[in-house]
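Assemble and predict.
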Amino acid sequence: MMLDVRNLTFSYGQRPVLQGVDISLKAGCVASLLGPNGAGKSTLFKCILGLLPGYTGDILLQGEDARRVPLKRLARSVAYIPQAHYPAFNYTVLDMVLMGTSSRVSAFASPGKAEVAAAMQALDTLQMADFAHRDYMRISGGEQQLALIARAIAQHSRLLIMDEPTASLDWGNQIRVMQQVRRLSEQGYTILQATHNPNQAYLFSDEILAMRSGRIVAAGSPRAVFTAPLMEELYGISAQVESLRDDCIRVCVPREICALECELP
Amino acid sequence: MPERRGAARQGWKVAVMGVLLLVGVLLSFAWGRYPIAPDEVVGILGSRVFAVEPFWGERLETVLINIRLPRVLLACMVGCSLSAAGAAYQGIFQNPMASPDILGASAGAAFGAALAILLRAPSPLITLSAFFFSLLTVGAVWLVSTRARGKRVLGLILSGIMVSSLLSAGTGFIKLVADPADQLPAITYWLMGSLAGAKLSDVAFAALPMTIGLLPLLLLRWRINVLTLGDDEARTMGVHAGRLRVIIVLCATLITSAAVSVSGTIGWVGLVIPHLCRMMLGNNYRHLMPASMLFGALFLLLVDNLARNLLQTEIPIGILTAFIGAPFFLSLITRGEGHG
C-alpha cells in the first residue's frame, strides 16, 4: 500500500476535527476526496504531510510510520500541490519547480546541474518545458497549476496530495489538469485530491472517498459510491444522479430546483 | 542549455556590481576635501604591506588612513548590512515592504544611544549601548510575538510596530529632559544618521557581528526562496521553516544592530536597494542576496561621498538617503504593474 491511514484522530484544542479516519491507497491510483467545507479534508492532508504532528492513530507511507520519517525524507515520499496561488514574489517557472528539489540540496547550497535537469524533465512530463523561463505570475491559472504539479514531480515523491487543484480554473483548464493527473497515475504516481466537483471525481478517479464531520462515510469505486443518497448526506441538498453514456459519466443535479424549472420526475 | 544561460547572466550582473564597488572604493579614497591622486592612494595603501618609498606628503597619509579609510569601509559595511537585512526580512515575512527596522532594531538603537548621551557616556559606550538596546528590543519583540494569538508572522510585525513606538516615546522623553546646550543636538545628530567621524575602532567593532550575520545569509540564500512560499509549503518540500526563520531573523538582526549602532538611523537603504536589485536580477535570492549586499555597499558609499563633499558643511547621510529613497519609492508604487 502506498498510503495507509489507520484510525486517525485529531483535534484543534477541544474541537475534534478527524474522528477515526481509515484510508488505504494502492500505488498508481487516483483517489478523490469529497466532502462539504469544514469536513476535515485539509486537516487530513496536513496530518499526512507531517504538518500537524499531534494526531493519534497511524499514518503509514509504504508501510513506514510517517511519524518516524525525518522531514527531508518525508518530502521525497509525499508531495503537496496547493491550489495555484500568487506567491509574495514573482519567480520564473523554472525557479518555482527547482524549489521542489530543495530536500536534495544541502542547506548551504543552491540547486546545481542535476537539479536543473530534474526540474526540466518534470516540466517536460507535464508538457510545460516551453514555460521554463516565463514568469510564474504571468502564466494562466491552469499553467500555474501544472507548474506546481511539475514541482511535486521534481521533488521525486510518488504520492501527490492535491488540495482542490481545479477549484479556481475554467472548465477547459480543469479538464487539462485532470488529464495530466490521469497520465501521472498511469506512470505510477499515486494521487489523493480534494475536490468539490463530484462529476469530475466520478470521471477521473479510481476511488472516491466521502468525508463528513471528520469521518469517512463512504469509500470505494466511483460506481459504487457516487449516488444521490450520498450526495444528500454530504451536502444536505436533495440530489439526483443522472447516468450518461452507458454509465461512463454521472452527473449530480439539485433535485428541487430541477423539479421546479425542468419538471423532473 | 538556456536555463544555464539565464543563471550565468545574473551571475555576470553580480560580478559587475563587485567590480563597480571596487572602483567606487578606490575613487572614494581619492575624493575629498584633501584630494589624493590615485597613484598616491595605491602607494599609501601598498606601503602598509610592501616596502614603498613614500612619494606623498605625510599629511595625506594621515588623512587617508585615519579619516578616509575607516569612513569608506564603514559606509560599505553599513550599506551592505542594511540592504542584506532588508532583503532577508522581505523574504521571511513574505512581504516586499519589510525593511531592517521592522522588528525594532533601529528604535532600540536610537533609545540606547540617546540614553548613553544623556548619561554623558564616552563615544564607544554610546555605540555599545545602541547595539545592546537594539538587540534587546528585537529580543523583546520576539518574546512578545510568541505569546501573540493568530498568525506568527503577523504577530511579529505587530509587536515590532508596538515595541518600536514605545521606545520612540522613550527616546522622545530623553530628548525632553536632555541638556539643550549639548546633549539634545548630539542626540538629534545621532538620529539623523551619519558616518562623519568614523574611526577604525568603529570598523573593528562592527566587523565581527556583521561577518557572523552576513555569512549565513549568503549561504542560506536559496532556502529563503522556499520560505517565501509560506511555512507549510516549505515544510512539505523538506525545509525546516520555523528553524530557518529563527536563524535568518538572528542574522539579520545582528547585522542591522551593528550597522545602526555605528552609523545612527539610516533609513531607506534596506527597503530601496533590495527592490532595485529585484528589478535588475529578479527575485531569486541566489543572485538577489549577493547583489543586495554589493549594491547596498556601493549605494551608501556613493551617498556618503555626496554627504561629505556636496556642501561646505557635512550633510547627515540619513537625510540624503531619504531624499533619494522616498521619490524612488513613489515612482515604484506608481509604476502601475506590481513588480514585487
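The two ends of chain B are 28 Å apart (CA to CA).
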